[in-house]
Amino acid sequence: MKLIAIYSASHAPLTDRYFLPTAPKDLEPIAILQEHQSDGNYGTNAFWSFMEHKVAMIRDAVRDNPGQPILYADVDIVFLAPIREELIRLLDESGKDILFQREGYMTPDVNFGFFVIRSNERSLAFFEELAARLPDHGFDDQKTANLLLPNSAPLRWDYLPWTYAAGSHGFPPPDDAVIYHANDTSGAQGIQQKIERFEDLRLIQKYGAPAKLWWKIKQKLRRTFGRK
Asked: How many domains does the chain have?
């Protein structure tokens, strides 16, 4: 299964230190460095331009790999367990064309940073329409996808299980999480916040309950002294 990702120079530390080293060996990672001037922070003009390249890359991968499952993942993700066989099983059992990570517990939105695709005419048509509609919604790929999906028939889609965890679900992730997506950071320190979150998770995985307690103490100290 191809694992495709696109990243800017600002995200290279995430790609090189966390994303690629944790990618399961039975996936075929294709990480493309997109050359453009960007600090990588959500909401900037350069960020939206990057999203246009991202959608085009996914569309082209679906077109060029008919009949094959493809996994797309943002590089602010760490893999915590092998997932290839489970993803193929979920696609087969559900009969869906795309399975998306959930954005959160209180919203029906999908997260457009992690999803598995069955490459076929329906999924290709969806990504072609998504690419065409991006300019209508400020090149916000996630917003555009969530606007299109409710009326995207004949595309068949659904959500991945909650074990495909994200920062927008809360932290720490559940013990049975198979990935963790640090999607709840923003601003000038966004990349550093992601790195800190991955390091916290690494300690929790290694030391368990004591590390979780220490993380909670650190959060209380940060709130007390005004550091986010």
From this structure: 1
